[in-house]
Amino acid sequence: MAEDIVDIIGRLNNKAALKQHVYRNTLTTFNQLKKCAREIAEHLTPKVIEKDEKLEVELIEVNDFEFHLKFSGDTISFIMHTNVFCFPPEHEVGKDPYVIEAPTRGYCGMIQAYNFLSDSLKYQRLADIGYLLARLFINSEGHFYVDGQRQLDFLYTDFAKQEIETEAILKIIEQTMLYALDFDLYVPPLDAMSEITLQQKMVFNNSGGLATGKRLGY
User: Do residues 128 and 104 touch, judged by C-beta distance below 8 A?
Assistant: First the structure.
């Protein structure tokens, strides 16, 4: 067998096995994330409906790789990407001695958290904007790294020491919820709404509304 073919087979076997391991770790973490989100919803609902029964916190399963955590006018969509990524050499993870020592540690699965208006999903307003709140990366050894908004941009950046566990998962969910609650919907500028097409008006009458996002305003 040609030397190049042997090399190709070896690389395919090693890299494919690694990526499958990363994928399984990511899927396990995603299911842990879903379990923790459900527990948060069940814990919060009795406390908030005392004040207003419309304030129910709800977990909605979309498919094997997506679920929604709905609370009042906000929904966080947690989405697991089915592919495996590696960090570029110039990224802080790529420069980490933990990764330099064993580059395969830099291969990660990714789970993203997007903030949507609950009405965007309810009325299927396809032009509405969702905002990325956080990305959670998990490698083959169960170590993780997070980048995102506010505290999520610096709380979990020690890739070498951080191993995924329930306490960290709960904290990540709580921080995304806090950011979404503070991230308000702005009134759109007058000029942006001074003209609409007949098609837009018809969509609006069918509950679709005009394109809406928390920062499409002033």
Answer: no
pTM, rounded to two decimals: 0.85
Q: Convert the pLDDT of each residue in 147-202 to its tens digit.
A: 998 888 888 989 999 999 999 999 999 999 999 988 766 556 666 666 667 666 66
Residue with tokens 């979404």: 180
Q: What is the pLDDT of residues 58-84, one digit of tens each?
A: 999 999 999 999 998 899 999 999 999
Q: Cα separation of 164 and 176, whole Å?
A: 17
What does the domain layout of the chain look like in residue ranges? Answer: 3-184
- 107-117/74-86 β-pairing: antiparallel
* Structural contact between residues 148 and 157, judged by C-beta atoms closer than 8 angstroms: no
- The DSSP H or E segment spanning 48 is helix 3-48
Question: Rounded to 5 degrees, what are φ and ψ at 186?
Answer: -85, 150
